[in-house]
Write a structure and sequence with these properties.
The chain has 85 residues and is α+β, with helices and mostly antiparallel strands. It has one domain: Alpha-D-phosphohexomutase, C-terminal domain (TATA-Binding Protein), CATH 3.30.310.50. Helices cover 38% and strands 28% of the residues. It has a three-stranded antiparallel sheet, covered by helices on one side. A hairpin with a 2-residue loop joins strand 2 and strand 3. Helix 1 crosses helix 2. The longest helix has 21 residues. The radius of gyration is 14 Å and the shape is elongated. The model has no long low-confidence stretch (mean pLDDT 88).
Length: 85
């Protein structure tokens, strides 16, 4: 991580109709072994809410691109699960 690059952080919270849906999407998008230097992604379900925290030390542009990727994965997971509630 460059000393001149500020660390950026974003939290996505998506409320689902039930706990099972939130957990299913969380499992579908959770990386098995993320090895991206300067980026941390953590997904948890808190009841019916999926919470995804992204911490990026590679600049705000990289944070935005990572959030776009995460949202695309969430959308694909929802479609694969048949349009969760």
């Amino acid at each position: 991580m460059s000393k001149n690059t500020a660390q950026s952080e974003a939290v996505l919270r998506i409320r689902y109709g039930d706990l099972a849906s939130a957990e299913a999407v969380m499992r579908a998008i959770s990386p098995d072994n993320l090895k991206a230097e300067g980026i941390s992604i953590d997904a948890v379900s808190r009841g019916c809410v999926l919470e995804v925290r992204v911490i990026c030390g590679r600049g705000v542009g990289s944070l935005v691109a990572t959030l776009d990727d995460v949202l695309s994965c969430i959308s694909a997971a929802e479609k694969a699960l048949g349009g969760v509630a």
